[in-house]
Amino acid sequence: MKNTFLILLASGLSVCTWAQQAAITLDVQNKGISISPVHHGIFFEDINHAADGGLYAELIRNRSFEDAATPEYWTVVKDVSASLTASLVNTDLLNTAQSQALCLKIFSATATYRAGISNAGFWGMNVVDGREYTLSFFAKCDTMFKGNVTATLESTDGTHTYAKAVIPSLSTDWKKYTCKLTASGNDKAARLVLSFHAKGTVYLDVVSLFPPTFNNRKNGLRPDLAQLLLDMKPKFVRFPGGCFIEGDVLANRFQWKKSIGPIEERPGHNNLWGYRTSDGMGFDEFLQLSEDIGAEPLFVVNVGIAHNDFVTGNDLKPYIQDALDAIEYANGAVTTVYGALRASNGHPEPYGLKYMEIGNENYYSPYYSAAYCQFYDSIKAHYPAMKLIGDVAAWGTDSPTWDIPKTADLVDEHYYRNPAWFINEYAKYDSYSRTGPGIY
Description:
single chain, 440 residues
């Protein structure tokens, strides 16, 4: 049976319109080549603040004071007769994951005149009337400080206060403090202020402010943006990058073990794209996102290659072990080391990771082929059902820079071409071999 559909193409003019008909004929008896049930999906990378300042719901920028040698994105707030200084310290810290903390030396402050610090988030903090925000921070003080901490959501100039909470006192040892702030107004460019009304020295670290999150997940995602992803109905989520996986150097690659657990235990790292990332949106959060939107997680691992350095041979063993441990964390029983760690982080049931890509766009490297095979052999020996993806497309030619291994489950043909090339290759996969590796 053949059905004919008519599509009207219209173009508006200043005084008249015209329409032209085009006919499309569909032969529903001949469907052609079958399409995979996981044919389309989404690819996430922390680039242009896609995580911090984007999908990740955290409102504070540089919450752990690790972004620079000065308290970047934090501003001193002081009333007329109040005075204080703000600097970073690197001793007597909260834990080994943190390398800096904020030190506020308050020389003058009273019940009437405050001294403190403010943060406007990522290009202005969006405050919504009636919305409840969760504030948490770690703090300690010296023996001289006898005051409280006042937390406010307010306008940039301080003339309007939308929410207020008071922490009665501080300890001389590091301690976590939390409170709720419910907004009584709307402001797309608000700020958080932590202010003090007594003399002394106060230390702050990991200052975090969260609105409600998607599916009410702890340390979760923005509901509006996550809902858009859900509405796309993707069948898989490829994460966490991109070149983000590789790093400019291997020391700055994404390391999943440093991106799990409480946020104060995540050191963060310098992002290849020119800013520091908190890794607040880490391995668990990506797996949870995939679960929440009904998509298969596709985890990309570093293969020992960064943009400016690499390792080979036996030096790849820790990288391969990280990949194996990631699978155990995602899928292992709670009786395993990393399965137990997953459970302790709030997800006792396995995530069901089925796909892992070995490297990202590393086909250009002469070291990739051997590294891929080392990863493949080791992972398959431990997890034979894991679907492994290799990189094969070349940047400027139509031929891969290494032969597709017969053992590859899927290959990532990651092309960078001009629009004409894609138009000319419209039918590329119509005649693609169905006996070799699948295509990611």
